[in-house]
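Box S2. Input/output pair 1.
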Amino acid sequence: KTFRPRKKFEPGTQRFELYKKAQASLKSGLDLKAVVQLPPGESINDWIAVHVVDFFNRINLIYGTMSEYCTEKSCPIMSGGFKYEYRWQDDSKYKKPTKLSAPQYMCMLMDWIEMLINNEDIFPTRIGVPFPKQFQQVCTKILTRLFRVFVHVYIHHFDSIINMGAEAHVNTCYKHFYYFIREFSLVDHRELEPL
């Protein structure tokens, strides 16, 4: 239920070219710290947009592969161990931070991110249409919440990831994500404490 089809970039667009550049760099075995740096002459907002969508796709896939182990019974609270509990809040149904099970939280999160990245007013795809002033703030919120998926997966379900033989993929995805958010200071340092 939480797995979504990948969001794709339209061939021929600048973002598609940036996406191809980012993917080629990742597959070339380059240092991930270098790969996340803004290419010369490129727009920071375009670079962030491409990565937010790509991270959404990858993290959604990671959670989707192990979601059968993350149930209402096994994970009645969305948490990162005993010290960290994540509550859901949005601007519509949940106006106050609300305790949810991990599967409910994940479902709400993936729906919320999908709605944002498909909103042309926030993630414009047409050439010449500017990003809104609050674009990086929105991306910070998305990336902060996606980080919580890593926290939950690593602390509560890493044995399942190992049993599936997916730990190398999850670790590489996490390193890429971590270097990216640190490069552009997109997630508050306090949020990073659980990992």
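Box S3. Input/output pair 2.
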Amino acid sequence: QLYRDARECLTLLSQRLGSQKFFFGDSPASLDAFVFSRLAPLLKAKLPNGKLQQHLKSLQNLCNYCTSILSLYFPWDGGDPPTSTPRAAGADGGEAEEDPHKRRNQLLSVLVGLAAMLGYAFLSGIVSIQRGSAGPGGRQPVALEEEEEEE
């Protein structure tokens, strides 16, 4: 039942698209982004059961639609899945060659995340820094260590 419904949906999408470049004419709309996000993986991925993929491939206008969007918005791969050149090089030299800056990128992303969290904490008032000046009533703020000793 599920495959039958999915095939019917693909057929209806194909009929609605017709010979147009996009669903609403010559320029893409949010519907095109949504439909493409569902069709491209179905068209390009290797699936264990290819029934639905074969049906999509039989609908030539939907295949052309996906290929057109891939080549228009993702020109670096010309509409084809990314090549595995870096992985082939990494297979000989280990995983370090696959992305030589992987550790640096991980460290940088952790530092940026930490800075963002600290910035949010300070700006929202969750954490504040008090200067060494006297507080209201001439009292000096008690440091955290002194407070623990008093208890």
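Caption for Box S3: The chain has seven helices and no strands. Residues 74 and 80 are 9 Å apart (CA to CA).
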